[in-house]
Structures are given as C-alpha cells and as structure tokens.
Write a structure and sequence with these properties.
The chain contains 13 helices and eight strands. The chain is an alpha/beta fold. The protein has a single domain, classed as Alpha-Beta Barrel (TIM Barrel). It is globular and about 50 Å long. Its cofactor is FMN.
C-alpha cells in the first residue's frame, strides 16, 4: 500500500516557524511517541516553481555519494524512479569558484534528472555564497550543505564536512549566506554528533542554532556519529552505532522542522516501515547504488503511490 497522502497542516508549518526559545531536551531510549504527519506527494518538477510555503522536502531521496551519484548513475536512477529525489556528489565550493569557465563539468545535468539537489561543501563563507550564486543558473531544486563527511581531506585539512558540527554558529551563518544567494530551499546533511560531542543535547544545540540563524528548515540526519580520527570514511559508515532514537527525538523536539532519516536502510520494506513509524522523509545511500532496481524499482509505487516507471530491469 502506498504511503503518500496529503497534509495541508504539514505545509502550513514552515512559514509559521517561531524564533527558537531556550529548550530542555530529553532523549528517550526508544522513540516514545511517533508523530503522525501524513505525507504529501511532491510535484515532480523543479521545486523552484512551487509557491513559498508549499515546499516539502523529498519523501524519498538517494543520498549524495562521492564518485557514485554522478551524472551516469543519476540517469540510470531516474529511468527507474520518476519520483525519488536525487542528490549530486558533494561539489566543493572552491572548485566552483575557481573553475568558473568549466562550471558545466561540475554542475550541468540533464533536465530529466529533476528533482535534484546540489550538495556543496566548504568552510569559507564568501566562497559558499559565490558558489551558490554560480550554481543558481543550473536550476537545482534545493541546495544542501555537507556537515557529515568525516574524510581526512574534508574534515581534516579542509575543515569542513563533519568538522562543521563543532561550529553550529558558523553553519548558521553559512546557511544564511547560501540561502541569500539562491531562490530554492536549503538544507543541511549532518551526523548525530562528532567525536565526543555526541550527546543528544549537543545535536539539539546544533539544530537550534542553525534554525535560528538561517532559513534552514530541513536536516538530513545520518543517524550515527562521525569519528574524525582513527576511522576511514567507509568505517565511519558502519562502526559508530546507528541511533535512530536521536532522529525520532528530533521530530518530537522540533515539530516545525523537517528531518530526513538516513543510515543503514537496505530494503524498501525498511523505508516504508520508517515512514509508517513517523519518519518525515527517508534517504537511502548504498542500497540504492548497489542494487538500484531492488530499491528504486519500488519507490514510485510503494512510497509515492504512483505507477512504476518500468516494469522490468530489461526495460530499463
Ligand atoms: C561511496 C560513498 C560516498 C559518499 N559521499 C558522500 C558525499 O559526497 N556527501 C555526503 O553527504 N555523504 C556521502 N556519503 C554518505 C552517504 O550520503 C550516506 O549518508 C551514508 O552512506 C549512509 O547511508 P546508507 O546507510 O543508506 O548508505 C557517501 C557514502 C558512500 C558509500
């Protein structure tokens, strides 16, 4: 049975966001109360054409994956699912700013790939702003900032990716600069914590700061923390334990913000179950790459309640 039904109340939440008040956060060991937001079908065209306040983050999306979610993969993914939202690989802001004459190489995509989100990375406000402005011409449907990559090059040398979770104030400023330079929604993809900054309260402070300093109302939560030394990026995607309870607690504590659940979902049944349990949106990475047909072949019917695009792998 399809998950999608429409909720006007849910749409109405975004514009009515009130400034963050000091809060006390409690983490239940299990998600005690699941919210029962219904999920609307998102129009499949560019979100930029939606009236303000009508924006809903993607119900189902394919995660940004460096070297994997390139144009070729995204073309294949779109052949299989019309409705799944697709994320680009992370593009570093400096790459965009310093290669102005080769922008197509990094930013161009075929129109059929809508709805599509550009993920950028960086820790320099000016460059993030300029990169967003330069990317605006490409009509992405949302701009996302990477606050979850633990790789040495990114979070070490580069001081961005997951390292940014150490500085919520900066992320708030960065999101404000990004939003000021585009006319589409903006979002943050982050971990539930980093190194020993891994308490639920610290995660809430991060969300609180970013929401109060910028128009960001959508966070993608990779539900495990990142360790910035001692683990490879691949280990950082499996060694730190998944803590879905942090995700569900965020739904309870920030009812005015959209949260996408990411991490460890490997089947369409798990995706459907997460949404039934109250997840606002779900993002799948490796499973959508390793077996696109098994995952994406069911998204349009099972998640969006729409006809499947292709009836068989052979047709794709
Ligand atoms: C090869 C690979 C590259 C990745 N590159 C990125 C990236 O560029 N930006 C990002 O935010 N996450 C990146 N990730 C993390 C995924 O987006 C996702 O958060 C992670 O794989 C957990 O989701 P999953 O368990 O469904 O795979 C990458 C993951 C993989 C496997």
């Amino acid at each position: 049975m399809a998950i999608a039904t429409r909720s006007a109340a849910w749409h109405a939440l975004l514009p009515s966001l009130v400034p963050a008040k000091p809060r006390i956060f409690f983490l239940r060991s299990r998600p005690g109360r699941f919210l029962s937001h219904a999920h609307g079908l998102r129009p499949c065209g560019a979100a930029s054409s939606l009236p303000p306040g009508e924006y809903l983050p993607p119900l189902f999306s394919v995660a940004p994956m460096m070297d994997w979610t390139d144009n070729h993969y995204r073309t294949l993914a779109r052949l299989i699912s019309r409705h799944a939202w697709l994320y680009t690989e992370m593009v570093v802001a400096e790459t965009i700013v310093h290669q102005k004459d080769k922008l197509d190489r990094f930013l161009a995509f075929p129109a059929e790939q809508h709805p599509i989100v550009l993920q950028i990375g960086g820790s320099n406000l000016d460059n993030l702003a300029k990169a967003t402005e330069l990317a605006s011409g490409y009509a992405y449907d949302e701009i996302n900032l990477n606050c979850g990559c633990p790789s040495g090059k990114v979070a070490g040398h580069g001081c961005f990716g997951a390292r940014l979770m150490y500085d919520p104030e900066f992320v708030g400023d960065a999101m404000s600069a990004i939003a000021a330079n585009c006319d589409v929604p903006v979002s943050v993809k982050c971990r539930i914590g980093v190194d020993d900054r891994d308490s639920y309260e610290e995660l809430c402070t991060f969300v609180d700061k970013v929401v109060s300093k910028s128009p960001t109302r959508h966070f993608i939560i990779h539900a495990r923390k990142a360790l910035l030394s001692g683990l490879s990026p691949a280990e950082n995607r499996k060694v730190p334990p998944l803590k879905y309870e942090y995700y569900y607690a965020l739904l309870r504590d920030f009812p005015e913000v959209h949260f996408t659940l990411n991490g460890g979902l490997t089947t369409i049944e798990q995706v459907s179950a997460s949404i039934r349990q109250g997840a606002h949106q779900v993002m799948v990475g490796r499973a959508a790459y390793n077996n696109p047909w098994n995952m994406l072949g069911h998204v349009d019917s099972e998640i969006y309640g729409m006809p499947t695009r292709c009836s068989s792998r052979r047709q794709v």
